[in-house]
């Protein structure tokens, strides 16, 4: 069931309209008020979920692949959830090492509206042989997306102007805040960073 | 008293700058790059100044284990084959600490150089002292240097080209374009690019 809710959030200095489009029913936000005066605007500005350029599947696992234009949606969602977007690959040793910390955050903070998205940068030839078996073997519960856009110079600066291109790299954002990290995370470090996003 | 307050303020600001900008030590285009003396896979020490007939250098931080570096190995060999004779030889440096990444040990470097028929020096950044001066953060990471009277000037930093996956689908050969421009006494148009790579294991 898809429930669309429009929240009007009034801040001391500015009024901000945030749109939430969720697949799950969530507990109502105490500060929300239903807006009746701006539905047309909302409809026009609500970004649509992009179509993947390809879906890679085996018997048990399926991963949606996007080019950067598609992936951008997942880096700019404005709702009441805080997103932890981790750029990784199965061949990246420090990425694989920190992955359980992101999985644990995703599991432990689900009720707190924190969602982990794992953006794989595995190469084409590795998707069937490495990525899909890895997701199955590790039983990854966080959402895994695949970024298939080899012209990296065109999109790395759009993710963050300070990103050199080394992975692991992580973006944490919500409707109000955004931070970029070109580093590995322990669970405690990740938890501490997320606690700043309220 | 005021002086002390000012001093304290400066110290705090200095400390903040040092902590908030850890990558500031790297070279920017236009900077003069340091020379080095690093051990090649043939056991001999190599410095840029020892390379004869060089007009400049294509310094590539690369390694054995990284799939992105592997994807570019043949293209790095091709760069050297094309540009060494023109005065821009490739000098490859493995910046990784072999204790952190066993695949990048000196013995494995020797094997890799042999297997892939590297026609250029493949040096170990022993002690991981050179890559931080250049500001390399990942493999592969290229610095095109031009030899001038005031030293080796950084003319290009970044990726080899715009498609790591498929050499045939490349549209922009960044390094070739930069070296071609230098050989023709022209300005390098694309001076800096970003690419995905494996973080350096220091």
State the gist of this model.
The complex is a heterodimer of chains A (198) and B (202). Chain A has 198 residues and is of the alpha/beta class. Chain A is 32% helix and 28% strand.
Detailed description of the structure:
The complex is a heterodimer of chains A (198) and B (202). Chain A is an alpha/beta fold and 198 residues long. Chain A has two domains: 3-45, no CATH class; 54-195, Glutaredoxin (3-Layer(aba) Sandwich). Chain A is built from six helices and ten strands. Chain A has a seven-stranded mixed beta sheet with strand order 3-4-7-6-5-9-10. A two-stranded antiparallel ribbon of chain A has the order 1-2. In chain A, a hairpin with a 4-residue loop joins strand 9 and strand 10 (178-181). The longest helix of chain A is centred in the middle third of the chain and has 16 residues, at 93-108. Chain B is globular and about 40 Å long. The relative contact order of chain B is 0.20. Chain B has an eight-stranded mixed beta sheet. The longest helix of chain B is centred in the first third of the chain and has 19 residues, at 2-20. In chain B, a hairpin with a 4-residue loop joins strand 2 (38-40) and strand 3. Chain B has one domain (25-199): Glutaredoxin (3-Layer(aba) Sandwich), CATH 3.40.30. Helix content of chain B is 30%, strand content 21%. Chain B is built from five helices and ten strands. The model of chain B is unreliable at 14-23 (pLDDT under 50). With 202 residues, chain B is an alpha+beta fold.
């Amino acid at each position: 069931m898809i429930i669309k809710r429009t929240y009007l959030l009034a801040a001391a200095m500015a009024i901000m309209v945030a749109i939430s489009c969720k697949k799950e029913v969530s507990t109502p936000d105490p500060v929300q008020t239903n807006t009746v005066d701006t539905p047309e605007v909302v409809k026009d500005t609500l970004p649509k979920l992009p179509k993947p350029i390809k879906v890679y599947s085996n018997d048990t696992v399926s991963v949606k692949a996007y080019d950067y234009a598609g992936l951008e949606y997942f880096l700019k969602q404005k709702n009441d959830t805080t997103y932890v977007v981790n750029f990784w690959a199965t061949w990246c040793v420090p990425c694989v090492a920190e992955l359980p910390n992101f999985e644990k955050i995703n599991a432990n903070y689900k009720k707190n509206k924190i969602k982990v998205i794992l953006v794989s940068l595995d190469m084409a030839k590795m998707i069937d042989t490495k990525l899909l078996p890895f997701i199955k073997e590790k039983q990854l519960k966080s959402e895994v997306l695949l970024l298939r856009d080899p012209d990296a110079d065109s999109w790395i600066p759009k993710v963050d102007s300070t990103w050199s291109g080394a992975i692991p790299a992580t973006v944490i954002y919500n409707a109000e805040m955004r931070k970029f990290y070109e580093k590995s995370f322990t669970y405690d470090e990740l938890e501490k960073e997320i606690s700043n996003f309220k | 008293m005021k002086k002390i307050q000012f001093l304290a303020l400066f110290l705090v600001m200095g400390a903040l700058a040092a902590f908030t900008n850890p990558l500031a030590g790297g070279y920017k285009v236009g900077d003069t790059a340091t020379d080095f003396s690093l051990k090649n896979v043939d056991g001999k020490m190599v410095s840029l100044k020892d390379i004869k007939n060089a007009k400049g250098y294509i310094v590539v931080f690369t390694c054995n284990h990284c799939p992105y570096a592997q994807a570019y190995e043949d293209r790095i060999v091709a760069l050297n084959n094309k540009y060494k004779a023109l005065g821009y030889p490739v000098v490859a440096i493995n910046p990784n600490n072999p204790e952190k990444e066993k695949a990048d040990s000196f013995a494995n470097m020797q094997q890799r150089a042999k297997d892939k028929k590297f026609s250029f020096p493949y040096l170990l950044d022993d002690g991981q002292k050179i890559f931080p001066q250049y500001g390399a953060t990942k493999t592969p990471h290229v610095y095109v240097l031009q030899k001038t009277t005031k030293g080796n000037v950084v003319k290009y930093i970044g990726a080899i080209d715009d498609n790591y996956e498929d050499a045939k689908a490349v549209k922009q050969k960044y390094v070739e374009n930069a070296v071609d421009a230098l050989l023709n006494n022209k300005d390098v148009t694309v001076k800096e690019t970003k690419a995905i790579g494996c973080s350096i294991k220091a």
